[in-house]
Amino acid sequence: MKSPLALPTDHRRGQLVKALKDNLALLFGVVALAWGLEVIDTILLGFLDRFGIQPRSFAGLPGVVTSPFLHLGFGHLISNTIPFLILGGIVLIGGRRVFLMATLFIIAVGGMALWTLGPGATNHLGTSGLIFGYLGFLLARGIVEKSSFWIVVSVVTLLLYGGMLNAVFPGQPGISWQGHLFGLVAGILAARVMFTREKPLPLAN
Fold first, then answer.
1. Ranges assigned E (strand) in 12-134
2. Residue-wise over 109-148: b if at least 16 C-beta within 10 A, else e?
3. Is 190 exposed, middle or buried (CB count within 10 Å of its CB: 0-12, 13-18, 19+)?
4. Which H/E stretch holds residue 20?
5. CB 136 within 8 A of CB 187
6. Which pLDDT band, with edges at 50, 70 and 90, does 3 fall under?
7. Closest CA to 26 of 128, 116, 96, 131
8. What is the CATH number of the domain that holds 129?
9. Are 68 and 129 spatial neighbours (Cβ–Cβ below 8 Å)?
């Protein structure tokens, strides 16, 4: 016997499809914003590039918010688009609220760490800090949450994208390895803050 509160199969399927569309709209909306800004920046001959993170410069402080959506040309943007869609999409599997909270945490904490500790007289642009944040978040979530599903996701993510971890160390000139490192750490911290469950206090008899 069906519960009178149970939704018809078609209705449940419709809700699932709508949820997927809404989530994909959010993910691709972020990408569309970055591409739109790069088009505008090209027309303005790079004017928007000044809004990156400039460590310990008050003029560069707004870059904590703006820098993840700005890039140094379409080549830079293209190289970030695919990993953002893949890793961001995996984070989004956990729900829109989780995606938004993790994204805001990584942007704020990773960006402020870069602004505070990054090398002076530099300008950091690009979504890569956020991408490394998603990587750290996915690697840590299964362990912190003690979820078998997310542990499998963590292992698969490590196998597929573990090579990215090389980019958190000094290497190629002109690449913000500091942004990668602080993004990765911020992602791990986001998973810890969001999914660590407090142990109940022992009660005396």
1. none
2. bbbebbbeebeeebbbbbbbbbbbbbbbbbbbbbebbeee
3. buried
4. helix 9-43
5. yes
6. very low
7. 96
8. 1.20.1540.10
9. yes
Q: Is residue 34 part of a domain?
A: yes
Location of structure tokens 């980019």: 167
Which residues are CB-neighbours of 144 under 8 A, at least 6 positions away? 191, 192, 195, 196
**pLDDT winner (highest mean) among 20-24, 122-126, 172-176:** 122-126
Q: How many domains does the chain have?
A: 1
CA 90 to mean position of chain CA atoms: 10
Length of the chain: 205
Whole-structure pTM value: 0.88
1 domain residue, yes or no: no
Q: Which amino acid is at 83?
A: P
Helix (H) or strand (E) holding 41: helix 9-43
Task: Give pLDDT tens digits for 81-102.
Answer: 999 999 999 999 888 999 999 9
Buried b vs exposed e over 27-47: b needs ≥16 C-beta within 10 Å?
A: beebbeebbebbeebeeeeee
Is residue 158 situated within a structural domain? yes
Residue 6 lies in a domain: no
Domain that holds residue 41: 14-195
Comparing CA positions, the residue from 132, 137, 138, 89 lying closest to residue 114 is: 132
